[in-house]
Protein: NAD kinase 2
Organism: Schistocephalus solidus
Amino acid sequence: MCGAHVVLLSSVLTPLRIFCRTLTDVTTNKLSPFKRTLIVSKRSAYAHEQSRSSYTDEAALEKSILERGKSFNDMKRAHRFHAQIIAELTRCLRAHDVEVRVVDFKEYDFSDAEWSDLIISVGGDGTFLSAASKVLSRDKVLVGLNSRPASSEGSLCTANWWYRRIPEFVDRLMLGKFSRFWRQRIRLQLAPYIAPLETQHPEIVNIYNISPNFSPARVAKGTENLDKSRSQTPDSATLTRTLPFRALNEVFVSSSMSARVSEYEISLDGSKFVRQKSSGLIVCTGTGSSAWYYNTNRVTPSLVHSLLALTEEELVACASNERPELQQLQQQSRGGFAGYHSDLPLVNPLQRTSAKTRSLCGKSLTELAEAVAQKYNQELFFSPEAPHMGYAIRDLVANSIFKFGPPFGFAYKIKLVSRMDDGYLCIDGSLAVPFNDGTPAELSINPEDAVCVIDMSVSEAGT
């Protein structure tokens, strides 16, 4: 190759090398989408024991833990492992020129969330919910890293293997190898004029600090003359206080003691207010539809099996106009309530078909029951991006006085008026707001309240 060709080739390759080097810098950390990252860390069991104890030395702490039947060594080992994950995550983020702050989830505040452009929760689903609770902007991005999959399912976090591959996890975040979606959240509005516990505004407390109130509800000064009968329930115009928190999973409305009846008035999507008694009301988002709401409403294959067996008996009885088994069951039921008859055998309706194998639609009843239960339970889930809420009433009291429709369903707006002396609105199982007699509340979903979450499933598919 002649000198002229070498010079010409060099003049072409040099800019190309510069361009390639620049492109490499861009795809690593020079144009990172995040500049300030907040790590919201769970508090390990060991750290929790340390924080709540007044032990002078570790030996005393170890003795106390062992006396309660717990493993001190396992607790401390898990604490060290969690601390190593935090340290590795911090190191990798700073290698990308990202400013990093680490905060304990119990000390996490709105100012921390406002400072950051990326929030990484390190823990389980509870830590993720805590991290989301202080986010008030759709521009903040949230991702969860499950630090201990052996003890936490982490359904709101990324895949459970990422805690072992922190450098790659951070690289993908910095390279933008993820998608974003918005999980809807529940907004709570309360009326400020019924102030529980003689305060001007509801007091937001940690759910673990609540003690049952055995005295009648107290009324705030200046509200003594308000009509407490609430024959005309306040409309939304009076609900001028919007709580700063948003519920990502659910809001639970109940008395502070589970043994007490929860009583309230409820209106769904503008319907007439109805008074209810129950063990509490669950109102969830699509995110929360796989949690408490699901476990409250799900059916078991054994229950479906019993219903299918009863259905088959009814069909046979209709065809033959004879119902000996049903008559026998009714006699046993009457005996059980009116007085036990020793000559009648005890029968468990859930096991009524176990003595013989039946089939329906070409399947055994057991197979069919499992298939029906699975399909029914799957239909309880709905999308985290759905604009509506699901509700479930626990142990609804239904009689001639208290009447209501289905104990669970969907709504866009739910209005409530408390009829409890020690009621609470519990947010995502961690925060609680007093909800005492006469206080109106409104639960709704607003698009501007959605929280932006990272989805790495596309990049995980090939892992």
Notes: The longest strand covers residues 241-247. DSSP finds twelve helices and 21 strands in the chain. Residues 301-378 form one domain.
